[in-house]
Amino acid sequence: MFVNIPKVLNTVVRQLSLTASRNDKFSCKVLVVGGGSGGCATAAKFSKILNKNDLIVLEPSDYHYYQPLFTLIGGGANKLEDSRKKEKDVLPTNCTWLRDKALEYEPEKNTVRTEKGHTIEYDYMLVATGLELRYDKIPGLLQALDKPTDVCSIYSPKYVSHTYEVLKKLETGNAIFTFPNSPVKCPGAPQKICYLTDHYLRKHNRRGNVKVTYNTSLPVIFGVKAYADALWKLCNERDINVNVRTNLVQVNADKNEAIFENLDKPEEKTTVKFNMLHVTPPMATPESLSKNKQLTNGAGFVDVNKDTMQHLNYKNVFAIGDCSSSPNSKTAAAAAAQTKVVFENMNAVMKGDSPRLMYDGYASCPLVTGDKCILAEFDYDLKPLETFPFNQAREIRLMYIMKKYFMPTLYWKLMMNGYWNGPAMFRKLMHLGMGK
Ligand SMILES: Cc1cc2nc3c(=O)[nH]c(=O)nc-3n(C[C@H](O)[C@H](O)[C@H](O)COP(=O)(O)OP(=O)(O)OC[C@H]3O[C@@H](n4cnc5c(N)ncnc54)[C@H](O)[C@@H]3O)c2cc1C
């Protein structure tokens, strides 16, 4: 349970530990592990009802990225700086930020041990550590990305800007886009950058010289049929080759060669020459989390009730965002819709009640197709759950404008301050109170 030291002393200890010492003990009412989209948005809500010392956010990064903008950065419509703010300016002022990493979780003792050697005791914990990019899982990939080659990736702030450089110099040959054999965040992004490349090449009269191919490990182009139908049509019209169940297994950047396996016949490998290779890396929850078998399921995700986001065994533990086992599409839009559920349900548990709010699996994916966008919105059942009262499964210019200009503001100003819980309320208004 808690370290029972007086609050004043506790604060002093905490301040010291922020600077120099090791093996300090911290205690708090709510610990948020990870200050990304979900963690920061929920911490902002808690900061309105808790004291600074009662709310600890454990987050190692100096910068917070609005990752949905990475796609547009790769396509040349934005710069990396547009997606980045200092973590200290994004986290609520009324919380204690520990710039450190969770190393070991001990849910039986209500403690987390950190990389710098500290121990944090909590009453309630929200795990929000997201997904890690595992470029290292594909032989030759990191070597290719770490020097300026024709290999690129919008997924990391480290590599995203290079994507546009590769695109600008692409004149002829093969442009190949991949989707890995693992869960990913924003499952639409691997094909959005493919459409942006196609659009750019057409605009610069080079499309006829370049063969564009999208190789996905999935058996489908997109999980929601209504949008998948629209995307297949788009690929046919734009002459984009789509290969399903096709997984990148090796990159030989010095020869501009990529090796793919057929997931239905793993012994069948194909070597392809490329002039541009855009890689979406395999992803996984951080090892510090996935190695804890009490907290996570077999796939390494925090084992929660998909409706309440409460841990199945530890009632004082919740998860939000990409690291949770809830089977929704991993997006910031989903994390936004989860914040209210998590906040209200954690509050209920703190008062001795049962969690009441239910998350419906809402996720959204603005599928940028050039200077237009198909705004996919759907729920756990993979049924469209659209905000606007018209069919969103088609390319609409207004949706692109929303994605580029409106959504970043909504993220920084509302979601990061705890005021955005997803569009459910607007959806009801737009549909005159009918439907979900
Ligand atoms: C290219 C790209 C395009 C995308 N496009 C969209 C889009 O159009 N729409 C959309 O809604 N979503 C999109 N997303 C997905 C969206 O960014 C994520 O789903 C969202 O950020 C998930 O939030 P999260 O809080 O779970 O994880 P994150 O925001 O990734 O935050 C996780 C945090 O945990 C921290 N952390 C990690 N390990 C530890 C540890 N051991 N201890 C403490 N802290 C730790 C990390 O430093 C990080 O700050 C996109 C993502 C990418 C990469």
Automatic annotation (TrEMBL):
Keywords: FAD, Flavoprotein, Mitochondrion, Oxidoreductase, Quinone, Transit peptide. The keyword Transport does not apply. Its EC number is 1.8.5.8. It catalyses: ubiquinone-10 + hydrogen sulfide + glutathione + H(+) = S-sulfanylglutathione + ubiquinol-10; ubiquinone-10 + hydrogen sulfide + sulfite + 2 H(+) = ubiquinol-10 + thiosulfate; a quinone + hydrogen sulfide + glutathione + H(+) = S-sulfanylglutathione + a quinol. Coiled coil: none annotated. InterPro entries: FAD/NAD-bd_sf (IPR036188), FAD/NAD-binding_dom (IPR023753), Sulphide_quinone_reductase (IPR015904). GO terms for molecular function: FAD binding; glutathione-dependent sulfide quinone oxidoreductase activity; quinone binding; sulfide:quinone oxidoreductase activity. It is an enzyme of class 1 (oxidoreductase). It holds the Pfam family Pyr_redox_2. It comes from the Eukaryota. SUPFAM superfamilies: FAD/NAD(P)-binding domain. Residues 29-143 form the FAD/NAD(P)-binding domain. This is Sulfide:quinone oxidoreductase, mitochondrial.
